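job 3f2a | input accepted
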Amino acid sequence: MMEQQEIRPFWDALEVLCGRWKMPILHCLCGQPLRFSELEAHLGCITPKALSAQLRHLELNGLVMREVLASRPVATRYGLTDYGRTVVPLLQDVKRWGENHRRQLMRPDEG
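job 3f2a | predicted structure (111 res):
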């Protein structure tokens, strides 16, 4: 029987990274910091309310930093923290797995 302590790290990771938008947001921020409107454009159909909530959650968990720019109108820019950059290899692995999975699903039935 598996010990609870062996499973707990999975629950901790899922708590921070799960949800429809969190990994795509982190992926968008891998290259460079982006303004809120730029993130919206990259993600497509996310609502401003959902994007704001997801960014807040990622910020509270130390993965994303928020910078208020001294501009008119006021704009915000988001980027990965040093700690947030530690998730980049995981994102790359998940993306690669997703690509392989899609190819597997598209194969003609081999049975």
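job 3f2a | Strands lie at 34-35, 64-69, 75-80.
job 3f2a | closed
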